[in-house]
Amino acid sequence: MYKNIIFDLGGVLIDWNPRYLYRKIFDSEEKIDWFLENICDMDWNEQQDAGRPLTEATKILVDKYPEYETEISAYYGRWIEMLDGPIQGTVDILKQTIYNPNFRVVALTNWSAETFPFALERYDFLGWFEGVVMSGEEKCKKPDPKIYNTLLDRFDMKPEDCIFIDDSLRNIKGGEELGINGIHFTNPEDLSSKLSEKGIALS
Q1: Most buried one in 9, 39, 58, 177, CB count within 10 A?
Q2: Are residues 74 and 164 in the same domain?
Q3: Roughly how many angstroms between the first and final C-alpha of the chain, as a whole number?
Q4: Which domain holds residue 88?
Q5: Same domain, yes or no, for 120 and 180?
Q6: Which CA distances in Å does 171 have to 1, 8, 63, 155, 163?
Q7: Percentage of the chain with pLDDT > 90?
Q8: Which residues pair with 184 in a beta bridge?
Q9: Statement to judge: residues 104 and 193 lie in one domain
Q10: SS3 of residue 6 by DSSP
Q11: pTM to 2 decimals?
Q12: For residues 169 and 57, what is the distance between their CA atoms, to the nearest angstrom?
Protein backbone atom coordinates (compact mmCIF):
# COMPACT_ATOMS: atom_id res chain seq x y z
CA MET A 1 0.00 0.00 0.00
CA TYR A 2 1.26 3.46 -0.89
CA LYS A 3 1.51 6.01 1.91
CA ASN A 4 2.72 9.14 0.14
CA ILE A 5 1.65 11.04 -2.97
CA ILE A 6 4.07 13.53 -4.53
CA PHE A 7 2.68 16.07 -7.01
CA ASP A 8 4.58 18.14 -9.54
CA LEU A 9 2.99 21.58 -9.99
CA GLY A 10 3.55 23.19 -13.40
CA GLY A 11 1.85 21.17 -16.13
CA VAL A 12 0.08 18.98 -13.56
CA LEU A 13 -1.86 21.36 -11.31
CA ILE A 14 -1.11 24.71 -12.97
CA ASP A 15 -1.34 25.46 -16.68
CA TRP A 16 1.94 27.32 -17.31
CA ASN A 17 3.14 27.93 -20.83
CA PRO A 18 5.36 30.73 -22.23
CA ARG A 19 3.25 30.66 -25.38
CA TYR A 20 0.38 32.34 -23.56
CA LEU A 21 2.59 35.42 -23.24
CA TYR A 22 4.39 35.29 -26.57
CA ARG A 23 1.17 34.98 -28.55
CA LYS A 24 0.64 38.60 -27.50
CA ILE A 25 4.12 39.56 -28.72
CA PHE A 26 4.67 37.61 -31.95
CA ASP A 27 2.21 37.36 -34.83
CA SER A 28 2.72 33.68 -35.68
CA GLU A 29 3.31 30.33 -34.01
CA GLU A 30 6.38 29.87 -36.19
CA LYS A 31 8.01 32.99 -34.70
CA ILE A 32 7.14 31.81 -31.20
CA ASP A 33 8.63 28.39 -31.95
CA TRP A 34 11.85 29.95 -33.18
CA PHE A 35 12.17 32.31 -30.22
CA LEU A 36 11.51 29.64 -27.58
CA GLU A 37 13.84 27.17 -29.28
CA ASN A 38 16.71 29.56 -30.00
CA ILE A 39 16.58 32.46 -27.51
CA CYS A 40 14.57 31.84 -24.33
CA ASP A 41 14.87 28.07 -24.55
CA MET A 42 14.08 25.53 -21.85
CA ASP A 43 17.72 24.91 -20.95
CA TRP A 44 18.03 28.60 -20.12
CA ASN A 45 14.76 28.61 -18.18
CA GLU A 46 15.80 25.58 -16.15
CA GLN A 47 18.86 27.41 -14.85
CA GLN A 48 16.49 29.83 -13.11
CA ASP A 49 14.59 26.84 -11.74
CA ALA A 50 17.92 25.74 -10.28
CA GLY A 51 18.45 29.08 -8.55
CA ARG A 52 20.04 31.49 -11.02
CA PRO A 53 18.72 35.04 -10.39
CA LEU A 54 16.23 36.31 -12.95
CA THR A 55 18.11 39.58 -13.49
CA GLU A 56 21.30 37.68 -14.26
CA ALA A 57 19.51 35.32 -16.63
CA THR A 58 17.88 38.19 -18.50
CA LYS A 59 21.16 40.09 -18.81
CA ILE A 60 22.95 37.05 -20.24
CA LEU A 61 20.50 36.83 -23.13
CA VAL A 62 20.12 40.56 -23.70
CA ASP A 63 23.90 40.90 -23.94
CA LYS A 64 23.97 38.04 -26.45
CA TYR A 65 20.88 39.07 -28.45
CA PRO A 66 20.42 42.83 -27.95
CA GLU A 67 18.02 43.01 -30.90
CA TYR A 68 15.56 40.93 -28.83
CA GLU A 69 15.87 42.91 -25.59
CA THR A 70 12.15 43.69 -25.36
CA GLU A 71 11.08 40.11 -26.02
CA ILE A 72 13.67 38.63 -23.65
CA SER A 73 12.83 41.08 -20.87
CA ALA A 74 9.16 40.15 -21.17
CA TYR A 75 9.91 36.55 -20.15
CA TYR A 76 10.16 37.47 -16.49
CA GLY A 77 8.85 41.02 -16.66
CA ARG A 78 5.49 39.65 -17.82
CA TRP A 79 5.87 36.12 -16.43
CA ILE A 80 2.41 36.15 -14.82
CA GLU A 81 0.89 36.18 -18.30
CA MET A 82 2.28 32.66 -18.81
CA LEU A 83 -0.19 31.33 -16.22
CA ASP A 84 -3.55 30.21 -17.59
CA GLY A 85 -5.11 29.02 -14.37
CA PRO A 86 -5.41 25.71 -12.54
CA ILE A 87 -5.85 22.33 -14.21
CA GLN A 88 -9.11 21.84 -12.37
CA GLY A 89 -9.42 18.09 -12.81
CA THR A 90 -6.08 17.56 -11.11
CA VAL A 91 -6.95 20.04 -8.37
CA ASP A 92 -10.06 17.94 -7.69
CA ILE A 93 -7.86 14.82 -7.43
CA LEU A 94 -5.47 16.65 -5.11
CA LYS A 95 -8.36 17.65 -2.86
CA GLN A 96 -9.51 14.06 -2.57
CA THR A 97 -6.03 12.83 -1.66
CA ILE A 98 -5.49 15.66 0.84
CA TYR A 99 -8.61 14.64 2.77
CA ASN A 100 -7.75 10.95 2.67
CA PRO A 101 -6.17 10.05 6.04
CA ASN A 102 -4.26 7.18 4.43
CA PHE A 103 -1.89 9.50 2.57
CA ARG A 104 0.65 12.22 3.14
CA VAL A 105 0.68 14.63 0.22
CA VAL A 106 3.64 16.84 -0.75
CA ALA A 107 4.89 18.68 -3.83
CA LEU A 108 8.19 18.47 -5.71
CA THR A 109 8.62 21.17 -8.32
CA ASN A 110 11.17 22.70 -10.64
CA TRP A 111 10.32 26.35 -10.11
CA SER A 112 12.19 29.61 -9.64
CA ALA A 113 12.05 30.83 -6.06
CA GLU A 114 11.51 34.35 -7.42
CA THR A 115 8.39 33.56 -9.46
CA PHE A 116 6.79 31.02 -7.12
CA PRO A 117 5.31 33.70 -4.80
CA PHE A 118 3.17 34.93 -7.73
CA ALA A 119 1.64 31.48 -8.01
CA LEU A 120 1.11 31.28 -4.24
CA GLU A 121 -0.91 34.49 -4.40
CA ARG A 122 -3.21 33.06 -7.06
CA TYR A 123 -3.76 29.42 -6.17
CA ASP A 124 -4.89 28.58 -2.66
CA PHE A 125 -4.42 24.84 -3.26
CA LEU A 126 -0.65 25.38 -3.12
CA GLY A 127 -1.16 25.75 0.62
CA TRP A 128 -2.84 22.35 0.98
CA PHE A 129 0.38 20.36 0.86
CA GLU A 130 2.20 19.12 3.94
CA GLY A 131 5.21 20.75 2.32
CA VAL A 132 6.76 21.82 -0.98
CA VAL A 133 10.30 21.07 -2.12
CA MET A 134 11.21 23.67 -4.72
CA SER A 135 14.26 23.52 -6.97
CA GLY A 136 14.86 27.26 -6.82
CA GLU A 137 15.28 27.10 -3.07
CA GLU A 138 17.29 23.89 -3.09
CA LYS A 139 19.58 25.06 -5.96
CA CYS A 140 19.02 21.64 -7.49
CA LYS A 141 16.38 20.46 -9.95
CA LYS A 142 14.75 17.29 -11.15
CA PRO A 143 15.94 14.81 -12.37
CA ASP A 144 19.04 15.22 -10.16
CA PRO A 145 18.77 12.49 -7.51
CA LYS A 146 19.73 15.03 -4.84
CA ILE A 147 16.37 16.78 -4.95
CA TYR A 148 14.38 13.52 -4.66
CA ASN A 149 16.54 12.51 -1.71
CA THR A 150 16.01 15.94 -0.15
CA LEU A 151 12.26 15.37 -0.22
CA LEU A 152 12.51 11.81 1.11
CA ASP A 153 14.80 12.89 3.95
CA ARG A 154 12.85 16.02 4.86
CA PHE A 155 9.56 14.17 5.21
CA ASP A 156 11.03 10.87 6.39
CA MET A 157 9.56 8.91 3.48
CA LYS A 158 10.66 5.64 1.92
CA PRO A 159 10.78 5.65 -1.89
CA GLU A 160 8.80 2.44 -2.24
CA ASP A 161 5.94 4.02 -0.27
CA CYS A 162 5.64 6.96 -2.70
CA ILE A 163 3.79 7.71 -5.91
CA PHE A 164 5.23 10.61 -7.88
CA ILE A 165 3.10 12.44 -10.48
CA ASP A 166 4.91 14.56 -13.08
CA ASP A 167 4.27 15.65 -16.67
CA SER A 168 7.95 15.13 -17.56
CA LEU A 169 8.90 11.55 -18.38
CA ARG A 170 12.53 12.48 -17.69
CA ASN A 171 11.61 13.45 -14.13
CA ILE A 172 9.53 10.30 -13.65
CA LYS A 173 12.49 8.16 -14.71
CA GLY A 174 14.74 10.10 -12.34
CA GLY A 175 12.48 9.17 -9.44
CA GLU A 176 12.12 5.57 -10.55
CA GLU A 177 15.90 5.15 -10.48
CA LEU A 178 15.65 5.77 -6.72
CA GLY A 179 12.73 3.37 -6.29
CA ILE A 180 9.93 5.97 -6.39
CA ASN A 181 6.86 4.76 -8.26
CA GLY A 182 5.94 7.18 -11.05
CA ILE A 183 2.86 8.23 -12.98
CA HIS A 184 3.51 10.19 -16.16
CA PHE A 185 0.80 12.86 -16.20
CA THR A 186 -1.01 13.59 -19.47
CA ASN A 187 -4.47 14.65 -18.28
CA PRO A 188 -6.64 14.38 -15.14
CA GLU A 189 -8.79 11.54 -16.46
CA ASP A 190 -5.77 9.39 -17.23
CA LEU A 191 -4.28 10.23 -13.82
CA SER A 192 -7.46 9.13 -12.05
CA SER A 193 -7.40 5.86 -13.96
CA LYS A 194 -3.74 5.17 -13.20
CA LEU A 195 -4.21 5.95 -9.51
CA SER A 196 -7.10 3.49 -9.44
CA GLU A 197 -4.89 0.85 -11.06
CA LYS A 198 -2.43 1.35 -8.22
CA GLY A 199 -5.16 0.81 -5.64
CA ILE A 200 -5.86 4.46 -4.84
CA ALA A 201 -9.59 4.89 -5.14
CA LEU A 202 -10.97 8.40 -5.57
CA SER A 203 -14.53 9.22 -4.55
Answers
A1: 9
A2: no
A3: 18
A4: 4-15+84-197
A5: yes
A6: 23, 10, 32, 19, 13
A7: 95
A8: 166
A9: yes
A10: strand
A11: 0.94
A12: 26
